[in-house]
C-alpha cells in the first residue's frame, strides 16, 4: 500500500498543474529542439523526435519526477564533428550515401545509452553528491549566461554588421532606433516578461508562462502584426516545417556499421564524451530541482533512464539528449511536480509535430524568448554577488572559474574542473593541518602526539616532524588525535619505523585503528612488538578492505 501511494504521488499530486505546466514546457521545447538540431547539423524533426523520446522515457522511468529532458545544446556541440566526418565519408564511398553522419549519430547513441545505463547499474550517480556548493553556484550562473546568449541569436540584427559603432556612431544609433523589427520584438519580450512577473501576484492557478505565450500569440496573430515566428525560424535555418509523422524504426543503421571501419575511435570517444556530458548535466539538474522542491531524486535511476532514452533515440531516429535545466525550471515554477508533467510535455510535443504544426508555427519567437529570459533571471544565483567577498578566496575562484568555463567550453569540462580545483584546495588545506606535540616521559621516552589527518598530501609534513638521528633510544608515536586515511599514510609509518630501527632505537605505535594494525602486521611480523594495544584504540576504517591485501605490505607499491 505504501509503495502504491508513493508511485501515485510521484506520478501526479495535482493533475491540473502538471498538465498545464507540461503544455507550457512543450511550447518552450519547440524552438530549443529545432535550434539544437541546426547546431548539430541534422534535420529539425530529428531534434523534435529526440526531445519527445528523451522526455517520455525519463518522465515515466527517471529518478526525478518533474525534471524535463530533451535535445540539448551541450550534447549538440559534441555531435558536430562526428556528423560532419560521417557526411564526408559518405560521399567518398563506392555507393555515395547522403547524410551518413546522421546514421553515425544514431549508432553512437546506442553506445551512449549503454554507457549511461551501466553508470546507473554500478551506482555511479551517487558521486554527484561530491560536487561542492561553489561548483553548483558556478554551474547555474554559467548555464544562465549560456541560455541568455542562446536567445540573442534569435533576435533580428539591430544594426547592419558593416556599420561600425566606433567609426560611425551617429549612423549606428540611427539604424538602431529606426529598426522596427528589433524594437517590436523587444516590446513583446517585455510584455511576456511583465505577464510572467505580474500574473503570479494575482493568481497561481494557471502557469504564468503559458498565459504569457497565449496572450502574445493572440495579439500578433489577430492583430496581423508581422514578426519572427517559430515557422519563420525553422525556414530561416533551412528546415521545411514542424509537420511530420511518428518516429520510425531505423533498421538501416545496422547496415551502416561497415562504414565505420577506421573510424571506431571517433565513434567510441564521442560516445563517452556524450555520455559524460549528458550524465553530468542531468545529475546537476537533478540536484538543483531537489533543492527547489525540497525533495530527493534518485541519481542512479536517472542514469539508467537517460541511457534507455538514448538507446531508443538511436533505434528510432532522434538526436538524443539529457536533462534540460531551463525547461525543468519552467516546469517546476509552473507547478509541475509529478511524472505527469514531463509526460504531457513530451506527448504534446509529438502532437504538435503530428497535428498542430500550422498553429504552433505561428507562435512569435518573442514570446518564447521572453519566457527563457525569465528562466535566466530565476536560474542565476544573484546571491553570489553578495557572498563573493564573504566566502574563502578558493571558493570564490571556483565559482567564477566554473561559470566562465561553462560559457567558454561546456558544462562537463566546467564541473570536472571545478571539482578538481576544490579537491586540490581541500587536500592542500588538510595537508597543512598535521601537527606533532613532543614531550619527554619520566623514563626518558620521547612521545610524539600526532594531530590532524595523515594521508598522501600530508606525508611530507608528517616526516618532517621527526628527528630520527637525535631522538633518544626509546620513541613512542601516539595517533590518538590523528586519522590514518590511506595506504600512502601506512607506507609512511612503515618507513618511519624502519628508519628508527636502522638507528638501533626502540619505537612503539599507539592508538592505531584495527585496519592499520592488520595491514602493518601483514607488512612485517616485527609490528607485533611495535604496535601497542589499547582499549581506547579508534574504530574508523581505511578506504580499502585490508582482507584484500593477502601479501606482506612490503610487496605492494603504495606510492
From TrEMBL:
Keyword terms: Membrane, Transmembrane, Transmembrane helix
Principal subcellular localisation of the protein: membrane
UniProt domain SLC26A/SulP transporter: residue ranges: 16-401
TM region positions: 45-62, 67-84, 104-122, 134-152, 181-199, 206-225, 264-289, 310-330, 342-360, 365-385, 397-428
Compartments in which it is found: Membrane
Domain of life of the source: Bacteria
Pfam families the UniProt entry points to: Sulfate_transp
GO cellular component: a single term: membrane
Topology relative to the membrane: Multi-pass membrane protein
PANTHER family hit by this protein: SULFATE TRANSPORTER YBAR-RELATED
Protein name (database record): SulP family inorganic anion transporter
Amino acid at each position: 500500500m505504501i509503495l502504491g501511494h508513493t508511485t501515485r504521488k510521484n506520478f501526479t499530486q495535482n493533475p491540473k498543474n502538471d498538465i498545464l505546466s507540461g503544455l507550457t514546457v512543450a511550447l518552450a521545447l519547440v524552438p530549443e529542439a529545432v535550434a539544437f538540431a541546426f547546431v548539430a547539423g541534422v534535420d529539425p524533426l530529428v531534434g523534435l523526435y529526440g526531445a519527445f523520446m528523451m522526455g517520455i522515457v525519463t518522465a515515466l522511468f527517471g529518478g526525478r519526477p518533474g525534471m524535463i529532458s530533451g535535445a540539448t545544446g551541450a550534447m549538440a556541440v559534441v555531435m558536430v564533428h562526428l556528423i560532419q566526418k560521417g557526411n564526408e565519408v559518405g560521399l567518398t564511398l563506392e555507393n555515395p550515401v547522403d547524410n551518413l553522419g546522421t546514421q553515425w549519430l544514431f549508432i553512437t547513441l546506442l553506445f551512449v545509452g549503454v554507457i549511461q545505463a551501466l553508470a546507473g547499474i554500478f551506482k555511479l550517480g551517487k558521486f554527484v553528491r561530491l560536487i561542492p556548493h561553489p561548483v553548483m553556484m558556478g554551474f547555474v550562473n554559467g548555464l544562465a549566461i549560456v541560455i541568455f546568449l542562446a536567445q540573442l541569436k534569435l533576435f533580428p540584427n539591430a544594426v547592419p554588421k558593416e556599420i561600425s559603432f566606433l567609426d560611425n556612431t551617429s549612423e549606428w544609433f540611427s539604424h538602431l532606433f529606426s529598426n522596427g523589427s528589433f524594437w517590436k520584438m523587444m516590446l513583446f519580450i517585455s510584455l511576456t516578461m511583465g505577464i510572467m512577473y505580474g500574473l503570479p501576484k494575482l493568481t497561481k492557478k494557471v502557469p504564468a508562462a503559458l498565459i504569457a505565450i497565449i496572450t502574445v500569440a493572440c495579439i500578433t496573430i489577430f492583430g496581423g502584426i508581422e514578426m519572427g515566428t517559430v515557422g519563420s525560424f525553422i525556414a530561416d535555418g533551412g528546415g521545411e516545417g514542424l509537420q511530420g509523422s511518428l518516429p520510425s524504426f531505423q533498421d538501416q543503421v545496422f547496415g551502416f556499421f561497415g562504414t565505420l571501419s577506421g573510424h571506431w575511435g571517433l565513434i567510441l570517444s564521442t560516445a563517452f564524451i556524450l555520455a559524460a556530458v549528458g550524465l553530468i548535466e542531468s545529475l546537476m539538474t537533478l540536484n538543483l530541482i531537489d533543492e527547489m522542491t525540497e525533495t530527493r531524486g534518485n541519481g542512479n535511476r536517472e542514469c539508467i533512464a537517460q541511457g534507455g532514452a538514448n538507446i531508443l533515440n538511436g533505434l528510432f531516429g532522434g538526436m538524443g539528449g539529457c536533462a534540460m535545466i531551463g525547461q525543468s525550471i519552467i516546469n517546476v515554477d509552473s507547478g509541475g511536480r509529478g511524472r505527469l508533467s514531463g509526460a504531457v510535455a513530451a506527448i504534446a510535443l509529438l502532437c504538435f509535430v503530428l497535428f498542430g504544426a500550422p498553429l504552433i508555427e505561428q507562435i512569435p519567437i518573442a514570446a518564447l524568448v521572453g519566457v527563457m529570459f525569465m528562466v535566466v533571471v530565476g536560474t542565476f544565483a544573484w546571491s553570489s554577488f553578495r557572498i563573493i567577498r564573504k566566502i574563502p578566496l578558493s571558493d570564490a575562484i571556483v565559482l567564477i572559474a566554473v561559470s566562465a568555463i561553462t560559457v567558454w567550453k561546456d558544462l562537463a569540462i566546467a564541473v570536472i574542473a571545478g571539482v578538481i580545483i576544490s579537491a586540490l584546495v581541500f587536500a592542500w588545506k588538510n595537508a597543512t593541518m598535521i601537527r606533532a606535540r613532543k614531550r619527554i616521559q619520566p623514563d626518558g621516552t620521547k612521545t610524539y602526539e600526532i594531530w590532524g589527518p595523515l594521508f598522501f598530501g600530508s606525508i611530507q609534513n608528517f616526516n618532517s616532524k621527526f628527528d630520527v638521528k637525535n631522538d633518544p633510544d626509546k620513541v613512542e608515536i601516539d595517533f590518538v588525535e590523528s586519522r590514518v586515511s590511506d595506504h600512502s599514510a601506512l607506507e609512511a609509518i612503515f618507513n618511519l619505523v624502519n628508519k628508527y630501527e636502522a638507528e638501533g632505537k626502540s619505537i612503539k605505535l599507539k592508538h592505531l585503528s584495527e585496519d592499520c594494525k592488520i595491514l602493518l602486521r601483514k607488512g612485517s611480523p616485527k609490528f607485533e612488538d611495535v604496535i601497542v594495544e589499547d582499549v581506547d584504540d579508534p574504530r574508523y576504517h581505511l578506504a580499502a578492505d585490508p582482507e584484500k591485501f593477502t601479501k606482506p605490505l612490503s610487496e605492494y607499491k603504495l606510492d
